[in-house]
Amino acid sequence: MKTIKIILGIISAIVVAFLLTGLIVKETTYSAQVSVNKPISAVFNAFNKSEDLKNWIPEVQSFEVLNDNPGKTGSVYKVVVLNQGQEITMTEKVMAYVPNEKVTLFFDAEGMLKKDDYTFTENDGVTTITLNASCQSETYLMACVFPYFKGTFIEQDQSYLNNFKAFVENK
To answer: Which residues are listed as membrane-spanning (predicted)?
Structure first.
């Protein structure tokens, strides 16, 4: 009987810790970075060509313009990705667009709210792209889960940046 109480106590503590995560951690933030051996203007232009998106983010199934604003800020797109055999429809909004300097994108992906802030810098013909990302959830249980998947988020975004580097450098 004592063993069962100990096991139930441990399980209860784990469940409480998991549920407290959603109350304590409201946003999961992380960074990723890549350096591309091309000038900043070429890198920035390639990064913002929606028709090339599938070349460095292989999960993208379709990309549709919903609202294309002059100057890009405020533009809205519908992106369909294939994630583990399931299609996910996302809305992407351009929050900031400063040519050759910065692009900030906001994604609403079925309960996951994500902001990607990309900055571009150049040094001796090598362009560095730095991603500062933040994820939030529309639901409490998803908010409890996100902090535990931070490593997965970093790994995925870093692989996309690495794919982009390979795509642009081989162009």
So the answer is: 6-25
